[in-house]
Design goal:
elongated; about 45% helix; about 475 residues; mainly alpha; about 5% strand
């Protein structure tokens, strides 16, 4: 980017002083270093200048002019246009089944173990209506889960999602200060906490994950498919993303920048880098969960196996809706573990198929209780690198692009300013403020202009007065 000032308090007054120096030098009768004599042909005197108005770098029009200039120079191709076409049209809500599973995990039906009343219980759901005909009958397939997927999953989630998909020991915890002038509310300060001592089950973790705008993101992406790619907002976001992709670091592409996860910051806007990465990973994981669940719940084989496990765990209740809800939660756990494989692959720079089938689904049902980061890493290694030609999937940057499009343009532009200011302050000058960088200025010039022969007697008098004159000029940086 090109601009004047932005550090050590340099402002429009300094710009005006430099402009006057240049102007006076250009008007000098005898230019410096010239031996030849120059007559004072124009007779300008008492030249004064005033900056009437300036345009700064963070103004929308100026900012995108420079972004477009950068992109032309870098010859970056727009390769993400078809990404949203791969998002499925419909998603399945799991909220009701997870609520029933929560009741099961928190002991609501435990009394049925003692009195045996569950054996003759009516097949009703939580609202007292008959349950739909689902896979709620007793399974004829043996349980092959190798344990209780609900409790294993809860224990696995105790250390956090990042520990499952990447090396937590190397994650940046740097803090990125927002610009005082950004005007953005500090949503990053909102804490995501759980009551101390509260016991959390598999359904609690899955509900929390699903509530992180994941299904909303999928629906919004559907809307993006119907938007004109030539629309102003979409076009500006795409240009800004392509600029950021070249200029900023991210988890998969470290550059020599102060912020290690610059792209993630544009999306999340949190103060700590590890929280920006966590925000992005959680949302990609949630999107992958929705997409993988679409295959899992449609697989007859996985339906049978999960029903067998659910019957072992919740059959004592004699309530088909409870067994069905536990079965559905088990399938969600399997879909989540597959999503961990996917996100691990994405963070390693690999491409993952958008939709799964029996051929490309990595997790086996029999592995549902033995999952670990090592297992996810091993399975992720079979995916090809995202940069390879003709890969059937999409990579980490394309998911970032989808999340990028869901943010407001002015927020993205403001956060870009945060990162540029942070980087320049850290590397060069602590006083740098990007909002004071001047890219254009209107000057009002005043000057005295005497005629060459004004001393002649016949040019004297009121009809031949030579007073002060003024002129307005405009200068700006233009990206070609």
């Amino acid at each position: 980017f090109f601009a004047y000032g932005g550090y050590d308090g340099i402002d429009a007054e300094d710009l005006n002083m430099e402009f006057l120096e240049i102007l006076e030098k250009n008007l000098a009768a005898a230019p410096e270093g010239q031996e030849r004599f120059y007559g004072d042909l124009y007779r300008f005197s008492e030249v004064a200048s005033e900056v009437m108005e300036t345009g700064t770098l963070m103004e929308k029009k100026v900012f995108y002019e420079q972004v477009r200039g950068f992109l032309k120079r870098q010859a970056v191709k727009k390769v993400f246009g078809k990404t949203t076409e791969k998002i499925p049209e419909n998603t399945t809500s799991a909220k009701e089944k997870l609520e029933i599973t929560k009741d099961y995990e928190h002991g609501k039906y435990d009394e049925l173990k003692e009195d045996g009343s569950g054996e003759n219980a009516e097949s009703t759901d939580a609202a007292g209506e008959e349950s739909p005909a689902e896979s709620t009958t007793e399974s004829t397939v043996p349980d092959t889960a190798g344990g209780n997927p609900l409790s294993v999953f809860s224990e696995m989630m105790g250390n956090g999602i990042l520990s499952l998909v990447c090396d937590e020991t190397n994650i940046s915890e740097l803090e990125i200060p927002k610009r005082e002038e950004s005007g953005e509310d500090l949503e990053g300060k909102k804490q995501e906490t759980t009551a101390e001592g509260e016991e959390r089950g598999a359904a609690d973790y899955l509900s929390e994950l699903m509530e992180q705008d994941s299904t909303d993101h999928i629906h919004k992406m559907q809307e993006l498919k119907n938007e004109s790619t030539g629309g102003t907002g979409m076009s500006e976001k795409t240009e800004l993303f392509l600029y950021a992709l070249e200029q900023l670091s991210d988890y998969t592409k470290p550059l020599d920048k102060t912020a290690k996860y610059g792209l993630e910051y544009l999306i999340a806007g949190k103060e700590k880098e590890n929280r920006n990465l966590s925000y992005v990973v959680n949302r990609i994981l949630a999107m992958r969960l929705v997409l993988n669940l679409a295959y899992v719940i449609s697989s007859p084989e996985l339906q049978e196996k999960s029903l067998a496990t659910a019957t072992v765990l919740a059959g004592f209740t004699g309530l088909p809706p409870v067994i069905s809800a536990v079965q559905y939660t088990i399938l969600m756990i399997l879909a989540f573990e597959e999503s961990c494989v996917d996100v691990t692959a994405l963070l390693e720079g690999r491409a993952v198929p958008v939709l799964k089938n029996a051929t490309n689904f990595k997790m086996k049902y029999e592995e549902i209780c033995i999952c670990s980061r090592a297992l996810f890493q091993k399975k992720a290694s079979s995916y090809p690198a995202a940069k390879k030609i003709n890969t059937s999937g999409i990579g980490y940057h394309e998911y970032l692009y989808l999340l990028f499009l869901l943010q407001k343009e002015e927020v993205l532009r403001s956060r870009t300013g945060d990162l540029i200011q942070f980087d320049l302050r850290t590397r060069y000058n602590q006083t740098f403020t990007i909002h004071t960088c001047i890219c254009s200025a209107y000057y009002k010039l005043e000057y005295q202009n005497g005629a060459l022969f004004s001393s002649l007697p016949f040019l004297s008098g009121d009809n031949w007065s030579f007073g002060r004159k003024n002129q307005e000029v405009f200068y700006e940086y233009k990206s070609k």
